[in-house]
Recover the amino acids of this structure.
């Protein structure tokens, strides 16, 4: 059932411990589109990812977020995930005693619903297949969730989950930080393999390098907790070549951060 | 400062009972001595636990048990633990005494003895005398003294030199009549180079108050190995007092696997005396506390032998207003050079009123040793809950995964599959409330 997602963020304001980080951010992502958000440190990029997923530390103070017309902000974190939202985190948690494999299967079954659980054999076959594509050691499946994983391995585990859960709106929060060029290529291949009309992507990145491998349709620059400039892939190329100063001058921004360091 | 105690039994009754069972004279005297001591000794002194406030009066009185015709006669809680086909190598105590005891011919032919202690006393008194109440002494406190006076049923497991017993021997202790005393004594003697596994379950049925005052003594001779697994699943009205102690000789090993899944107040002390050089003790314990339970669990290793080693791990989950004091004591005596003593106590608290104290204690009297401890008390990590929920897993399921994950490192290491499965089930039931 072809179902092109529509994710609309309108005037989003969010704070952490009474400090406002997002100051009225608006963005629409449709199925088939890849949006990249770039920006210097301290501009609120990670906060955006966490606030959209519903991290309890962040308080949304204004604005709306809808997913196919449904109010996302009213949904609990797990409801958002089951609606098709997926966030590949910058610092994934380690959970002792829960194996990667059991965790993944629980997540898949949570989405499929009671009575429609995936068969164990099918699951193992799929998981091992995707792990091979991501050049991950299949032994990892039996280790405890992210325990003892290097930063790069944790990121690959996030992409493995993304590929197995088939989300409709994918947010990648600095998936490229801490990855070497080979791992970066593998991750990008994984993302590109699932690009389709039924999926939208929001890629938050600090380095333009990732965008050489995952070509975005739209590029946005975040400063002071909002999107201040949007363009096509050529915007990313210009930022790579010239940095952010020209934007600051153009818009009369002196301090691009959200204040006191986010 | 001891308050006069109203003991559950008098001298004459103790003597009378002993004679009816045709116990040897030394046992009758031992019982009477125990009763005498129980009158004047204090209750055990437990860290931060007011055991004197527990209901310790309901000891019941001796009621001769009826032997059972079949396993079907047992209450549901007990029946579910038994395999209909496996009738060998099993002892069942119901209330005040054994109702079933059977050892396979194969093992009997090897000289293995496995029967209830009362029966064993009539046939193998000489094998029992050197050991009975030698590890857990009568005069330690009021409860050990009382136990020595009124013990009943129990088990005697004796493995001769060089005999390896491949199948785990099972014992089931059931209390379903609160008016009947229930004080099992387990005595295990593994002679040199032998090996054996013993698995026991303690269950209850019914709602009457009763105190279970149990003692386990394990003697592991040179180069022998004993694996002792116990699961306590007693009801709310049962107060559980358990002393377990092993003496480990040269190059011998003992493994303790303890599942504390009771619903009433409970106190247990699991101690290994590493007597011989090269002796080894491994202890794995898990506990789940619910409702208003007051719990006090101690694991201990006392090192005398050179190059002896011990490893103790306890993980406990506390819900509601349950309170647990978890002690880990590693004692290294002077002369126990080359010892390595490790311990870990971790408590996970699931609600604001739950309480868990993890007390690691290292008492070291020797320089050339290694000793370490890790203790932590914490709540469910909300970042972890968020991470699991962000994958579509509900909050309840996420917390469940984290809690089982907390116990998993210990449960997964339990070498007896049957116990692993059983503990999973009991944990699930306790946490599902």
């Amino acid at each position: 059932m072809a179902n092109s997602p529509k994710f609309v963020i309108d005037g989003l304001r969010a704070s952490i411990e009474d400090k406002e980080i997002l100051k009225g951010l608006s963005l629409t992502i449709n199925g088939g589109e890849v949006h990249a958000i770039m920006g210097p440190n301290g501009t609120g990029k990670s906060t955006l990812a966490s606030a959209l997923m519903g991290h309890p530390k962040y308080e949304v103070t204004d604005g709306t977020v809808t997913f196919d017309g449904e109010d996302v902000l009213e949904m609990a974190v797990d409801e958002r995930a089951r609606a098709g939202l997926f966030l590949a985190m910058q610092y994934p948690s380690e959970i002792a005693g829960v194996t990667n494999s059991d965790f993944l299967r629980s997540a898949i079954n949570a989405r499929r619903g009671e009575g429609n659980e995936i068969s164990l054999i099918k699951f193992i076959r799929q998981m091992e297949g995707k792990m091979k594509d991501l050049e991950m050691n299949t032994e990892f499946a039996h280790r405890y969730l992210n325990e003892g994983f290097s930063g790069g391995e944790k990121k690959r585990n996030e992409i493995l989950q993304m590929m197995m859960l088939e989300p409709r709106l994918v947010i990648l929060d600095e998936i490229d930080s801490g990855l070497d060029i080979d791992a970066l290529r593998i991750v990008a291949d994984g993302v590109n393999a699932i690009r389709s009309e039924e999926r939208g992507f929001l890629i938050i990145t600090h380095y333009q390098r990732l965008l050489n491998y995952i070509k975005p349709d739209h590029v946005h620059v975040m400063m002071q907790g909002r999107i201040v400039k949007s363009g096509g892939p050529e915007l990313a190329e210009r930022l790579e070549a010239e940095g952010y100063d020209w934007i600051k001058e153009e818009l009369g921004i002196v301090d691009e951060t959200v204040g006191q360091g986010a | 400062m001891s308050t006069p105690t109203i003991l559950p039994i008098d001298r004459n009754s103790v003597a009378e009972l002993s004679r009816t069972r045709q116990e040897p004279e030394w046992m009758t005297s031992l019982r009477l001595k125990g009763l005498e001591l129980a009158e004047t000794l204090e209750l055990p002194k437990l860290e931060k636990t007011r055991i004197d406030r527990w209901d310790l009066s309901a000891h019941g009185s001796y009621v001769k048990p009826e032997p059972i015709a079949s396993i079907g006669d047992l209450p549901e809680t007990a029946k579910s633990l038994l395999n209909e086909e496996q009738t060998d190598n099993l002892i069942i105590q119901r209330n005040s005494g054994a109702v079933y005891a059977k050892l396979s011919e194969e093992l009997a032919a090897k000289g293995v003895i496995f029967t209830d202690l009362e029966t064993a006393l009539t046939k193998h008194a000489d094998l029992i005398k050197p050991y009975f109440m030698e590890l857990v002494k009568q005069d330690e406190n009021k409860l050990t003294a009382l136990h020595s006076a009124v013990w009943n049923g129990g088990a005697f497991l004796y493995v001769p030199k060089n005999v390896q017993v491949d199948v785990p021997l099972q014992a089931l202790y059931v209390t379903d009549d609160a008016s009947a005393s229930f004080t099992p004594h387990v005595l295990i003697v593994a002679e040199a180079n032998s090996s054996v596994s013993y698995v026991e379950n303690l269950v209850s049925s019914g709602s009457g108050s009763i105190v279970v005052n149990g003692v386990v003594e394990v003697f592991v001779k040179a180069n022998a190995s004993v694996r002792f697994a116990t699961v306590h699943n007693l009801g709310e009205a049962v107060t559980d007092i358990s002393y377990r102690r092993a003496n480990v000789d040269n190059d011998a090993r003992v493994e303790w696997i303890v599942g504390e899944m009771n619903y009433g107040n409970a106190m247990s002390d699991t101690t290994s005396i590493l007597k011989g050089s090269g002796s080894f003790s491994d202890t794995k314990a898990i506990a789940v506390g619910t409702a208003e339970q007051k719990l006090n669990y101690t694991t201990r290793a006392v090192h005398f032998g050179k190059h002896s080693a011990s490893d103790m791990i306890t993980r406990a989950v506390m819900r509601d207003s349950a309170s647990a004091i978890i002690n880990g004591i590693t004692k290294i005596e002077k002369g126990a050079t080359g010892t390595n003593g490790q311990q870990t106590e971790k408590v996970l608290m699931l609600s604001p009123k739950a309480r868990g104290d993890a007390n690691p204690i290292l008492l070291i009297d020797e320089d050339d040793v290694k000793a370490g401890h890790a203790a932590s008390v914490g709540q469910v990590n909300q970042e972890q809950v968020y991470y699991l929920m962000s994958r579509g897993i509900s909050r309840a399921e996420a917390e469940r995964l984290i809690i089982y994950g907390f116990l998993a490192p210990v449960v997964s290491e339990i070498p007896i599959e049957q116990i692993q499965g059983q503990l999973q089930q009991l944990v699930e039931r306790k946490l599902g409330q």
In short: The interface with chain B takes residues 53-56, 76-78, 80-82, 86-87, 89, 92-93, 95-98, 102-103, 106-107, 110-111, 144, 161, 165 of chain A (CB under 8 Å). The longest strand of chain A covers residues 19-30. The CA atoms of residues 133 and 239 of chain A lie 32 Å apart.
